[in-house]
Specification:
Number of strands: 12
Radius of gyration: 20 Å
Number of helices: 13
Order of helices and strands: HHHHHHEEEHEHEHHEHEHEHEEEE
Bound molecules: pyridoxal-5'-phosphate, iron/sulfur cluster
CATH architecture of the largest domain: Alpha-Beta Barrel
Number of domains: 2
Strand content: 15-25%
Strand order of the largest sheet: 1-2-3-4-5-6-7-8-9-10
Helix content: 25-40%
Largest sheet: 10 strands, mixed
CATH superfamily of the largest domain: Aldolase class I
Distance between the termini: 54 Å
CATH class of the largest domain: Alpha Beta
Length: 359
Amino acid sequence: MLEKQNWKSKLAHSFKNIKDLYLYLGWPLSDNINDVASKYPIFIPLSLATKIKEEGPEGILAKEFLPSHLESDRDFNSFGLIDPIGDKSYLKAPQLIHRYYSRALFTPTSICPVHCRYCFRKNELSATEDIFQNDFEKTLQYLKDHAEISEVIFTGGDPLTLSNEKIEFYLNSFEKIKSIKHIRFHTRYPIILPERIDTGFIEMMSRFSEIFKTMSIAIHSNHLNEFDESNSNVIKLLATTNVQLLGQTVLIRGINDSENALIELFEKFIELKIRPYYLHHPDRVHGAMHFYLPIARGRLIYQGLRQKLPGWAIPQYVIDIPEGHGKTPAYNPEDYQYSGKLISKDGRIVDLKEPDLFV
Ligand SMILES: *Cc1c(COP(=O)(O)O)cnc(C)c1O
Ligand code: SF4
């Protein structure tokens, strides 16, 4: 009980006010950063703020989580999209995005344990709260009517913002639908607020891993500096269950766009029994274009990984084609240069120009 109150109160007492945060950091706050933070609010738990402070204003964590004047840069933003993924048109039932045949995304909350500055959802208002009961009935009905959906992927926001009781309620409901065999969670909690992975959560995951064919947790992390003793220990605990741990990484200019940074990260994943799953080419996000890099650069870096790591330690390098075309491989064994065309998941050739700023 104490444990539970602990993570919830830590979440509730996160920094949401930029002045308070900079006061805590002891760093000067410019008018410009103040303005950026009023457009794209901060959200930083105290434990993370401590790590940011230790690393300093030029550190990796500061770049990932503190506002930058580049977020309001007009040249950059002229290439940024408000809805870079185009998921919306695949919203088939309340909180349910069904774009790929056998998997559906379930988004029961829009709250995250931190606001990442590069986030592809940064232009959406984090307003949607818990789903209403009668809406959820419609979601269940859609899943029953679409027996081709064998995996439900909890995403968000961050689904671990929900209480264990709420997650259990959803899992019990999905268990009753025979066609649902796999469950996956996409989360940043194990890294950002490891207290969230309490004994109740671990027990619940273990239990449901006997019920569903697979239970997976895809852990989002971009840099070795995000790891410390407490989050490593929690992940080691998770790894003792039958839950499959996957690693999800965004390739980000200025953060991990080098062979070494990625090798260190994936070696850490492996040490913690996290299987590297996806390396995402950055999306074209309005307010985050300073994190973008050309596909040709990404391909070069990725080729370097293939030299130095075994196949099982290398994630798939993928890009989400804007306007709802979906994820597709970003690596091309024929050429580093980017031709301006990609094959979408449904097999069509899609034209996609690289932003002029970077070619
Ligand atoms: C990424 C994604 C999935 C999951 O795809 P996998 O390739 O199975 O990881 C499902 N639906 C949507 C809309 C996605 O973007
Ligand atoms: S955890 Fe994911 S969804 Fe949440 S702010 Fe970070 S990148 Fe965005």
